[in-house]
């Protein structure tokens, strides 16, 4: 597996992909099974700027009591249930996605061993290599959705459109925000100040066009 460095110019035609994979090697799920937790729901999977992978797990109160505090990254209480963040080095699926400059947006469990992974790849070739590598190491990959950035050739420059598209797909405009300026800029290989200024100019153009129309 070849690791590709992330450079700003390589993100000219990014792809947003969702795949379904039966993954019995998820390290976090394996850890929880070792504590007797066999039926847990993965609500979210995200890559971190440290190269590790974070998993958001939904547990009942009884399940929560079985989990040692030392392995929990963060707790978020929601009614009678607990949402717990765990951090690990990542399994073959997560590491393969991250190896080609792509980054994980989210992941969730479909059943006890099947997960949906959503990620953004810098280009089609990176996406293709991710799928090939996963299949070569024995995973059955079902591509559920794939879409690419396409320049509209209208109000914004291609670069402005591209960064806004990446920001939108990455959850930058969500509430609460799923990714911040520093993290997103690092993932696509540009300075945070460049990202902020490009987006500011793009949003100004859109607002001006809206009120002038």
Structure characterization notes:
35% of the residues lie in helices and 27% in strands. By secondary structure, it is an alpha+beta fold. A hairpin with a 5-residue loop joins strand 2 and strand 3. The protein folds into two domains: 12-148, no CATH class; 151-213, Arc Repressor Mutant, subunit A (Orthogonal Bundle). The chain has helices at 27-34, 61-64, 92-99, 124-136, 158-170, 181-188, 192-212, and strands at residues 15-22, 41-47, 53-59, 74-78, 81-88, 103-109, 114-121, 141-148. Mean pLDDT is 87; it is low at 1-7. The radius of gyration is 19 Å and the shape is globular.
Which properties best describe this structure?
4-stranded antiparallel β-sheet, 7 helices, 27% strand, 213 residues, 35% helix, alpha+beta
Summarize the model shown.
By secondary structure, this protein is of the alpha+beta class.
**What number is the mean pLDDT?**
87
Order of helices and strands: EHEEHEEHEEHEHHH
- Poorly predicted sequence stretches spanning 5 or more consecutive residues: 1-7
Integer tally of domains? 2
Q: Which strand-content bin applies to the residues?
A: 25-35%
Secondary-structure map:
Layout: E1 15-22, H1 27-34, E2 41-47, E3 53-59, H2 61-64, E4 74-78, E5 81-88, H3 92-99, E6 103-109, E7 114-121, H4 124-136, E8 141-148, H5 158-170, H6 181-188, H7 192-212
Antiparallel strand pairs: 1-7, 1-8, 2-3, 3-5, 4-5, 6-7
